[in-house]
Amino acid sequence: MTPFAALHHAPGPLLLPNAWDHASALTLAAAGFPAVGTTSLAVAAAAGLPDGAAATRDETLRLALTLGSAPFLLSVDAEGGFSDDPDEVGEFARQLAAVGAVGINLEDGLGPADRHAAKIAAVKRAAPGLFVNARTDTYWSGDGSGTRARLEAYQEAGADGVFVPGLTDPREIAALVRHLDVPLNVLCTPTGPGLPHLTDLGVRRVSLGSLLYRRALGAALEALDDVRAGRAPRGTTPTYAEVDALARTRAQED
After folding, report:
1. Cα–Cα dist 77/65, whole Å
2. Helical H runs in 78-163?
3. Which domains, ranges and CATH numbers included, belong to the chain?
4. Is residue 40 helix, strand or coil?
5. How confident is the model at residue 251 (pLDDT cuts 50, 70, 90)?
6. pTM above the 0.85 mark?
7. pLDDT one-digit tens code per residue, 122-135
8. Structural element, H or E, at residue 73
């Protein structure tokens, strides 16, 4: 079992914060998180590209190259693998593993389950040590229909964990945990169970998705409102030197 896989079987779920650049990832790691994920929305938004449209392959790989050698375990949000060709997805996963990523998140976008299963199998062939978190969007973009059948297919294809964003009902979460043979990942949402409740339900991984990025944008607007109103900006503000030190850390690594 890899160190990243082991985090999914430790006491309590793996709380996985999601970063969008070098500074945010290093900041999260410095806060004590042993593993950090990326968020496809932030990567796409930073590049002025749409999320979930297979438009950010190069940006995603570039970020993985930047973060893969950092002192934390890196899992990469790769949308649907940026291709419908399983072999191309497998090759992309191989490139991620080569630069130091230890996990990949692959979403089905409610496309054909057999195609997504083929992508998962291709990734496990190309990068056997990469932890594949297979996401289904049955709750994110639908009414939950077909969830179990899809997850069973993804398990059979070799997924190391499965991700069901949008799933918030405690009874349904508990039922899935009992049904699955691999760790269940859910998305932390304001309307869903909190971390202690998710722990009791048996969830093994809790992702924050784009939450931190969106909160960062919101905090920037709040700070601007404070300045406009003549108030000192609220909240925690890292110093110039602290942020600059993160970039200098990267320069020293290179």
Report:
1. 14
2. 86-98, 113-126, 147-157
3. 3-210 (3.20.20.60)
4. helix
5. very low
6. yes
7. 999 999 999 999 99
8. strand 73-77
